[in-house]
Automatic annotation (TrEMBL):
<dbReference type="InterPro" id="IPR054691">
    <property type="entry name" value="LeuA/HCS_post-cat"/>
</dbReference>
<dbReference type="GO" id="GO:0009097">
    <property type="term" value="P:isoleucine biosynthetic process"/>
</dbReference>
<keyword id="KW-0028">Amino-acid biosynthesis</keyword>
<comment type="pathway">
    <text>Amino-acid biosynthesis; L-isoleucine biosynthesis; 2-oxobutanoate from pyruvate: step 1/3.</text>
</comment>
<dbReference type="InterPro" id="IPR002034">
    <property type="entry name" value="AIPM/Hcit_synth_CS"/>
</dbReference>
<dbReference type="InterPro" id="IPR036230">
    <property type="entry name" value="LeuA_allosteric_dom_sf"/>
</dbReference>
<feature type="domain" description="Pyruvate carboxyltransferase">
    <location>
        <begin position="9"/>
        <end position="257"/>
    </location>
</feature>
<comment type="similarity">
    <text>Belongs to the alpha-IPM synthase/homocitrate synthase family.</text>
</comment>
<keyword id="KW-0100">Branched-chain amino acid biosynthesis</keyword>
<dbReference type="GO" id="GO:0043714">
    <property type="term" value="F:(R)-citramalate synthase activity"/>
</dbReference>
<dbReference type="InterPro" id="IPR024890">
    <property type="entry name" value="Citramalate_synthase_CimA"/>
</dbReference>
<keyword id="KW-0412">Isoleucine biosynthesis</keyword>
<dbReference type="InterPro" id="IPR013709">
    <property type="entry name" value="2-isopropylmalate_synth_dimer"/>
</dbReference>
<dbReference type="InterPro" id="IPR011830">
    <property type="entry name" value="LEU1_arch"/>
</dbReference>
<dbReference type="InterPro" id="IPR000891">
    <property type="entry name" value="PYR_CT"/>
</dbReference>
<comment type="function">
    <text>Catalyzes the condensation of pyruvate and acetyl-coenzyme A to form (R)-citramalate.</text>
</comment>
<protein>
    <recommendedName>
        <fullName>Putative (R)-citramalate synthase CimA</fullName>
        <ecNumber>2.3.3.21</ecNumber>
    </recommendedName>
</protein>
Length: 495
């Protein structure tokens, strides 16, 4: 374990300010309130809810979040201007993140002012924010490229005028941990935060280095969202601190995945598959040797338990699978096979993988049925599907199925034709079981508008999950095929 400077680290979450500065991301006030509530429940100390000066919508969000009675301190970004500070106070913020450019580049090229003028602006703003009853976190923007003596003087003067906390911003992500270790100890005139950007992939490393060198708070965002390459991801920092440094962060780690997926959905920024902690593959295993090890003892290939961050382990089948993982999947699906049958099933699973395809549960069941010579009458058969969609109609689908021998016709509307068709299918089988769509993924196997579309769905019934696929040139029929195949498997008698 490496000792950190303070026992209790504060997490200043800026998902709703720097995170929302991710180009193309824009949240409605109601979405901001939803995310702020989740962040407070997670246990962060401060939520930077936005930039009050930016727009009426931002002020509306700030008013709502500040009035929501959350346990976290509510902050807003402000420039060193009375107007911005007035917005913050009038909206009910607890705290201002008062940002002042401190490098000669930013002072000269951007503000076109002198070092002395910027000090004056910063100090006047601190005094004014204190008069308005706000907690002040005085931040040095582009501090990594500032003259350290000038920065120290500006910070010291700010604290003398009432600043409660300070923040060192590595605005363009150019620090090294060695520079952090040398500069941070000279700036501890008040509790100091570190705000890192990930332009060179160093945000996490530099944040940890600052916490070792004397900083007591880390600026973080969910999923590492933020300007350009983003900021330090809360999920990675919290888990690194807990697991590698033995720090009790006070963050409810089992809520991290829920917040990550909710933020990804609301911002429209997908989670990279292989992202640490929250990526889809972070607790998924396919290789035979890994799956075999994990099935005997999960620690062999998992540094932390998935449940610690609100996740579950998955073992996927494909061309890298071995006997142990195929056997475990067959057992889970209720099949009893001898050694020869398993060897044949493993060979056929690998053959599907060699064709470049994912192996779903329904694929495995089809292979197993064929190897075991099991003949199953399908519970449902599709007789027809009709979909209407266009510029002036609500997407509507009707389906006719035979379900356990009886004919059922159902219709539904949806957000689009696929959604309508899936809902119509769900309604048509409702008498046989409540089947829910948990996940829907689509890949175009070839380029162009005539591409073969590969749809994978994850369905659940009574807590049992199952994946299945459909592949057609028509996305609606590919989706229907995946649904019908999966529903059939979920409705079959097991054993
Ligand atoms: C590193 C960071 O993440 S900094 C935070 C970035 N966040 C944002 O920009 C929030 C969203 N921004 C906005 O909505 C708008 O830019 C506003 C409302 C803040 C300002 O809009 P405008 O008044 O039209 O100004 P514009 O965006 O063109 O330029 C920024 C102005 O702020 C000034 N400024 C920039 N930083 C500061 C500061 N810390 N303190 C005081 N003034 C500042 C600039 O000098 C410029 O003013 P000038 O044209 O008089 O020189
Ligand atoms: C303030 C801020 O977001 C930065 O300097 O990066």
């Amino acid at each position: 374990m490496i000792a950190l400077f303070v026992d209790k680290i504060r997490f200043f979450d800026t998902t709703l300010r720097d995170g929302e500065q991710t180009p193309g991301v824009s949240l409605k006030p109601s979405q901001k309130v939803e995310i702020a509530t989740m962040l407070a429940e997670l246990g962060v100390s401060t939520i930077e809810a936005g930039s009050a000066a930016a727009s009426e919508g931002e002020r509306e969000a700030l008013r709502l979040i500040a009035g929501a009675g959350l346990s976290a301190e509510i902050a807003t970004f402000v420039r060193a201007l009375p107007l911005d500070i007035d917005y913050a106070a009038d909206c009910g913020a607890d705290c201002v993140h008062l940002v002042v450019p401190v490098s000669d580049l930013h002072i000269g090229a951007k503000l076109r002012k002198s070092r002395e003028q910027v000090c004056e602006m910063a100090w006047n703003a601190v005094e004014y924010a204190k008069e308005r009853g706000l907690v002040v976190e005085l931040s040095g923007e582009d501090a990594s490229r500032a003259d350290p003596d000038y920065l120290a003087g500006l910070f010291r003067g700010g604290v003398e005028r009432g600043a409660d906390r300070l923040c060192f911003c590595d605005t363009v992500g150019i620090l090294t941990p060695e520079q952090v270790a040398s500069v941070i100890p000279g700036l501890l005139f008040a509790p100091l935060s570190i705000h890192c950007h990930d332009d060179l992939g160093m945000a996490m490393t530099n944040t940890l280095a600052a916490l070792k060198a004397g900083a007591s708070a880390a600026h973080v965002t969910v999923n590492g969202l933020g300007e350009r390459a983003g900021n330090t991801p809360i999920e990675e920092l919290v888990m690194a601190l807990e697991v590698l440094y033995g720090v009790q962060t006070g963050i409810r780690t089992d809520g991290l995945y829920h917040v990550a997926t909710a933020v990804s959905k609301m911002t429209g920024v997908p989670l990279p598959l292989n992202k640490a902690i929250v990526g889809e593959m972070a607790f998924t295993h396919e290789s035979g040797i890994h799956a075999h090890g994990v099935l005997r003892n999960a620690s062999t290939y998992e540094p932390i338990r998935p449940e610690q961050v609100g996740r579950t382990r998955r073992i996927l089948l494909g061309k890298h699978s071995g006997t142990a993982s195929v056997q475990a999947a067959l057992h889970e699906l209720g099949y009893v096979c001898d050694e020869g049958q398993i060897a044949e099933i493993v060979a056929r699973v690998k053959a599907i993988g060699d064709e470049g395809r994912r192996v779903t549960d329904a694929d495995l069941m089809a292979v197993a049925d064929s190897v075991l010579d099991l003949v199953r009458e399908p519970v449902i058969t599709l007789k027809q599907v009709t979909v209407v969609s266009g510029s002036n109609v609500i997407p509507t689908a009707s389906v006719t199925l035979t379900v356990n021998g009886g004919e059922v016709t159902c219709a539904a509307t949806g957000n689009g034709p696929v959604d309508a068709a899936i809902e119509a299918l769900r309604r048509a089988v409702a008498g046989a079981g409540d089947i829910r769509l948990e996940d829907y993924q689509v890949d175009a196997i070839t380029g162009g508008t005539d591409a073969l579309v590969d749809v994978t769905v994850c369905l659940s019934k009574d807590g049992r999950m199952l994946t299945s696929r459909g592949a057609r040139t028509d996305i609606i029929m590919g989706s229907v095929e995946a649904m019908v195949s999966g529903m059939n498997r979920l409705l079959e008698e097991r054993g």
